[in-house]
Amino acid sequence: MSELLAIAGLDCSYGEVQVLHGIGLALAKGEVLCLLGRNGAGKTTTLKAIMGLIPATAGSIRLNGRELTGLPAHEVPKAGVAYVPQGRRLFAEMTVAENIEIGLMARGKGKATRDMVLGLFPRLAERLNQRSGTLSGGEQQMLAMARALCLEPEVLLLDEPTEGLMPSMIEKIRETVSKLRGLGVSTILVEQRVEAVLAVADRVAFIENGRNRETMTAAALRADPAAVKRYVGVG
């Protein structure tokens, strides 16, 4: 596998408490990698470490061979990594259009990028003048993803994007991730819904107590569903 993003020996701590222990992940261009594990396993911390929001105490994070470890957090999106956190973090008082404009400014993108993003989320194009805080939960998730994609990232990090959404919206998010794969965007997805994982992921990495335990293809996971019970605690 040709690695776009390579993470090796990643350690992170919150104060005196070490929470990641030698995490190693590899991501190819256009690949969807899902992180699965119990609550508190270290999945979100891994995403935050990639974004420079939590400093690594050891290890390496490379994008196209460029070392990201140690970069200030505001430089990581400029390097080509976008992050949609749990809770979305939209500017609720701003309109859909204004939230998208902020995304475009981060890497100096313009109308072509805006049109591409709105093409992925036609529902947002109908609501450009609506305040984002008045959107439905699914629409807010779409806007958070749209704003991140305004960076034209090579890697997109999604933290539980389907949490609390209706099945129809979950399907829209899944379709979008699949479309992004076709556009060559690589995605790391933290997701608890096993059926959603199997519908969209190429590979699944199980994280337990801040450590990699096993990485397998989605096809292998379908054939061995007991792996989910081992690491996540559900069948």
UniProtKB/TrEMBL annotation:
Cited SMART domains: AAA
GO molecular function: ATP binding; ATP hydrolysis activity; branched-chain amino acid transmembrane transporter activity
InterPro entries registered for this protein in UniProt: AAA+_ATPase, ABC_transporter-like_ATP-bd, ABC_transporter-like_CS, BCAA_Transport_ATP-bd_LivF, P-loop_NTPase
Domain of life: Bacteria
Keyword terms: Amino-acid transport, ATP-binding, Nucleotide-binding, Transport
Domain ABC transporter: 5-234
Pfam families registered for this protein in UniProt: ABC_tran
Any single GO BP term: L-amino acid transport
CDD domains in the cross-refs: ABC_TM1139_LivF_branched
UniProt record similarity statement: Belongs to the ABC transporter superfamily.
Name of the protein described by the UniProt record: ABC transporter ATP-binding protein
Organism: Mesorhizobium hungaricum
